[in-house]
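QA checklist item 7 of 12: single-chain prediction sanity check.
[x] sequence parsed
[x] length recorded as 726
[x] structure emitted
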Amino acid sequence: MRVASLLLVCLVALALLAAWLLPGRLDWNRYRDTIEAVASSTLGRPVTIAGKITLSLLPEPELTAAGVVIGVPRSDTPGSDTPGSDAPGPAMQVQALRLRVALLPLLAGRIEARELALHGAALAIPWPLAPGDLAGWPPEWLAAFSARIEASQMRLGSVALTGIDAALATSDSGTLTASGTAQLAGQPIRFTARLTAAGADGTAGLDVALDGQGRLAGTGVGFVGQMAADGTMIGQVMARGRDLSLLTAAPSVPFQAEAAMRVSGGRIGFDDLALNVGGIALGGSADLRLLPTPRLDARLSAARLDLDAWQPVLFRLGPTGMPVGLDLSAGAAGLWGGVVRDLHAVLDLSEGQIALRELTALLPGEAALHLSGQVQRTDPARPRFDGTAHLAAPALRTTLNWLDGAGLSLFPGLPADVLNTVAMSAHVAAEPGLLALDRIDAKVDGATVGGELRLWPGSKTQDAKAPDTKAGATKPGAGKPNEGHPAIVAALTVDRLALDPWLAGQWPTLARLARLLNDHDLDLRLHADAASLAGQDISGLSLDAASQSGQGASQGDGQLVLRRLEATLRGVHLVASGTVGGSGRVSEGRLDASTDDATPLADLLPQSWGPTEAFWHGPASLSAQFAGPPEALGLHLRLEMADARLEAWPVFDLKNGRWAGPLTLHHPGAPRFLAALGLPGTEQWMGEGSLSVIAQLSGTPGRLAADQLDLIAGPTRLSAALNLDT
C-alpha cells in the first residue's frame, strides 16, 4: 500500500508537471482552422487568426490566439488574392482571443468551447452615421454573442471609450446584456445595456445607462426605447448630474434633463425637452443633424434666468466640435443686481467665435436694446464683440444707475439734468474693460449727436496708460486709462448743446477741476454747431481737451490739458488753451478774443456805466496769458479798443479773493477818449494830447485800491491814491 500510494503520488506529480510544461512545447497551430471555425460559429462573424496559438491546461484548459480579426473574411485579410464577401457590421481588431475548452474532447482531438474572452479589442464605428448605416441592427451575430471583453476600446466617431472591461451574455429569449466599466474622456464610468431580440417587425428594445464614477459620481445618462430594422431609434433620454461645471464651462449647479429622442436619416431629434439647471426650468427642443455636415440646433425658453451665475463663464465655452445654433428666450433674467426683461438671443457657436444673430432685451429704465455681431474667442481670456447696437432709453439715468451699481461707471460724475433720454444706433466693439462706439447716430436729450466714443469703466489692466492725447487717440486701443480709473475718449459732433445743465449752475473752479482730475481720464473732441449758456447763444463751439487722473498715494499729479477751445459769442470770437494741474496750478494759459464790432458787448455792463455808442462801435481785441498756482495766479492782459490799449499784470490769490498788480492805459487823443467814455468838454481844461495812465492796483472782495495812480493827459499831470469800498 505504501508503494502503491507513492507511485500514485508520483504519477499525479508527473501529470501536473506535464500539464504545466508540455502544452507550451506542442504545436497547436494545426488547430487554427478548427479554432477559427468554433469562434466564427460562436460570434456569427468571420474570425481570422494571424498570430500564434497556445494552450494552457491549468487551472482550466484554455486556447489563446493572438492577432485576431473579427468581421473580415480570410480572403480579405492581408496577403489574400481573392476578395471575400462583405460582412455586415464593423470589423474588430483583437490582441488575444482566449477560448476555454473541455478537456476530454480536447484529448480526443475535438474542440468544444465553453467560454470566449476578447483581450485588447479595438472597435471603430464611423460617426456621423449615414442614412441606412444602422439597417439590419441588431445583427444576428450580436444576438448569439456571449463573452468577456477585457482592456478594450471602442471609438464612435470622435468619442472614445477606453479601458473597457465588460461581460456580455444572452438569455434564452435572445436578449443581449452588457455591463462593465470604461473610461470616457479620461473619466471612469459604469455602463449597462440591454438589447432584446427583434420582433416580427424587426424592432428590438434598447436600454442604455451610463453612470459616472469618482469625481463624476452622481452624473449619468440613460436611454429607454426601441430600434427598428431600418436603424431608426425612438425613445426617452434622461440625464442628471450634481455639478454641471464638471462637464462644460458652466456654474457649479446640479442639472436634470429629459426629452423624447428620435434617430432617423442622419438626424437625432430631441422633442419635449425639459431642463432644470440650478433650479431654473427650461423647455424646448433640439435637433442634431449628422449629414451632410454635423450641426446642433436648440430652442430653449424659460420664465426666468440667472445671468449673474452664467456671465463669468459665458464666453469661456470650449470648442464644440460642430456648429451649434441656440435660440434662447426668457421672460426675466437677473443681471448685475437688476432685472432684464423680454430677453431673446439667437446665436451660432463655432470654432473660435460666436455669431450673435440677434439679441433683444428690455434693460432697467425701460431701455430697449438690440444687438447683432460676432464674438471672437481667439484669446479665451479676452473675448471681443464686434457688431451693431440700437438703444432706445427713455429713462437713461435709471439705466446708468443700474450699471453704476454693477461697478460699470460709464459716465462718472454726471450732473443731474443731463443724459436723460437717448435713441441711438452705432457700431460696437467691446472686450473686457473696454466699450467702443463708432458711427454713432443718436438723439440725446433732443440733440442730434454723431461721432466716436471709447469707454473704460474702471479698468484694472496692470499695463494701463492714460488716454493718448495725440491725434487719432479716439481710435480703438489708442489709449488706456490709469489702473482702476474710468476713462472716456470721444470725438463727437452735436447740432445744438445746452451748457447750463452740464455746468450744474456754476463755472468749474480750479479746485473743483483738481478734484475731478483725481478720479477720471478724459480725451474729448467736441464740436457743436449751436450752443447756449446763461441765455446767450454760442455758435461754432469747438472743444479739444484731455485730462489724466493722478497716480500714487497723493494723487496730486493729474492734469487737464485744454488744447483748444473756440467759440463765437455776441459776435466775439474766443480762443482759449492751457493746462491745469491736479493741485490747481495753471500753465501756458491763454485767452484771445476779437470782434469787428464791440457794440453787442455794451449789454454786458451795468447801465449806470454809460460809454457812448462811439466807444463800442469798432473793432476790439483781448489777449490774456496766465500761469501759476491758485494762490498766486499771474495774468498778463492786453486790451485794444476804441484806439486805446490797456495792459495789466495782476497776480490773483484765488483762495481768499485778493489780487494786486500794475496797469497801464494809452490813447493818442485824451479828450476824444474821455468823451467816448461819457465825459465831454474835458479838452477845455485838459488840453489836447495823448492819454497815459499808470497805476498800481490791488483789491479784495468789495474793495478796490490804487496805491499809486499817475495820469498824463496832454499837459495835465495828476498823481493820486484811490480807495473804493462798496
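[x] summary fact logged: The mean pLDDT is 79.
[ ] second reviewer sign-off
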